[in-house]
Design a protein that fits this description.
alpha+beta, four-stranded mixed beta sheet, 8 helices, about 60% helix
C-alpha cells in the first residue's frame, strides 16, 4: 500500500515545491516593475541635475553666487550623478529578463529600497538647491556710502543703521531655512570687496597703512597690490559688522548646524560681468558684495 501511494506522494511534493518556487518569480516580476519605475525617476533626476548645473554656471558667470556656494552645489551634482550611475548600472541587470534566484531576490529587494531612498533624497535636495539658486542671495553695499574716502573702517552712521543694510537678507535667510525644516543645514556668509583702478598716492596715510599690511620687505607695492589689500580690508570690515549683527539675533532656524563667515578682496576685478562700460575710477567698482548660501549637511 505504501509502495502504491509513493508516486502520488512524490507528485504532491513536486507540485508543492513548484508552487512555492513560483512565488518569488511572481514577486520578482512585480518588484522588477517597481524598480524600473524608480530607476526611471533616477534617470529623470540626472536631467534635473544637468539643469541645476547650467543654473549654477550662469549664476557664477554673472557673479550672483559666492564661490563657496557654487562649489557646494557642484559637489552635490557630482556626488548625486555618481550615485545615480552606480544604481542605474546595477538596476539594469536586475530588471533584465532573467530568472531570479535566492541571492538575486535579496539584491532586488535591497536595490528597490536603496533606489527609492536615493531618489527621494536627491529630488528633495535638487528642489531645495534650485530654490536657493533662483533667489537673490547677494546684497550690494556701496563703498562710497559705508566707507569714508581713503578708509576701510565702517562709518559710525552705518553701524547705527546696521539693520537697514542687513535685515532684508536676514529675513530672507530665516524664511528659506523654515521652508526646509527636515534638512540640517550650514549657513555661509561671504563678503567680496572690490576697488576701482585709481592709484593710491605714495606717502598718504592709506598708502602707508596698506603697505604695512602687505609687508613687501622693502619692495614697493603695485597699485593692483594696494587696491586688492584695500578691497580685502573693506570686505573684512563688512563681514565683521554682519557677524556682530547676527550674533544679536535669536536663531529661529533650529536646523542650522553652523554659520560660517568668510571674506575676500577682489581688488580691481569688475564686480558685475554684465556691465561693459566701467571707468578707471568708476564708483560702481567700489562696492562690497555680501553673499549668503545654505547647504544641506
Amino acid at each position: 500500500m505504501l509502495f502504491k501511494s509513493t508516486p502520488y506522494l512524490f507528485l504532491a511534493v513536486t507540485l508543492i515545491v513548484s508552487a512555492f518556487s513560483c512565488v518569488p518569480q511572481r514577486k520578482a516580476s512585480i518588484t522588477k516593475v517597481q524598480l524600473a519605475a524608480v530607476d526611471s525617476q533616477l534617470v529623470y533626476h540626472q536631467e534635473k541635475l544637468k539643469d541645476l548645473e547650467k543654473q549654477r554656471q550662469k549664476k557664477q558667470d554673472e557673479n550672483e553666487i559666492s564661490d563657496t556656494a557654487s562649489a557646494g552645489i557642484q559637489k552635490f551634482i557630482d556626488k548625486a550623478t555618481a550615485e545615480i550611475n552606480a544604481l542605474h548600472g546595477e538596476n539594469s541587470i536586475l530588471i533584465g529578463d532573467v530568472e531570479i534566484n535566492k541571492n538575486d531576490w535579496d539584491r532586488l529587494r535591497k536595490s528597490l529600497s536603496t533606489s527609492r531612498n536615493t531618489s527621494k533624497n536627491i529630488n528633495d535636495k535638487i528642489t531645495m538647491l534650485s530654490d536657493l539658486i533662483n533667489r537673490k542671495t547677494v546684497i550690494n553695499l556701496d563703498q562710497d556710502v559705508i566707507f569714508e574716502p581713503g578708509k576701510y573702517t565702517v562709518t559710525p552712521a552705518v553701524v547705527s543703521a546696521i539693520g537697514k543694510f542687513f535685515e532684508p537678507a536676514a529675513k530672507e535667510i530665516d524664511m528659506f531655512v523654515k521652508k526646509y525644516p527636515d534638512f540640517p543645514m550650514s549657513l555661509v556668509i561671504t563678503a567680496k570687496g572690490y576697488a576701482d583702478g585709481t592709484t593710491i598716492a605714495e606717502g598718504t596715510p592709506l598708502y602707508k597703512d596698506l603697505n604695512e599690511k602687505l609687508s613687501f620687505s622693502g619692495k614697493l607695492p603695485s597699485s593692483e597690490n594696494l587696491n586688492k589689500e584695500l578691497s580685502t580690508a573693506r570686505a573684512k570690515s563688512v563681514i565683521d559688522l554682519f557677524t556682530s549683527f547676527t550674533a544679536g539675533r535669536s536663531r529661529s532656524g533650529q536646523n542650522i548646524d553652523k554659520i560660517i563667515y568668510m571674506h575676500e578682496g577682489k581688488g580691481e576685478a569688475y564686480p558685475n560681468p554684465k556691465i561693459t562700460d566701467y571707468k578707471l575710477d568708476d564708483p560702481r567698482r567700489r562696492i562690497v558684495l555680501i553673499f549668503w548660501s545654505v547647504f544641506p549637511d
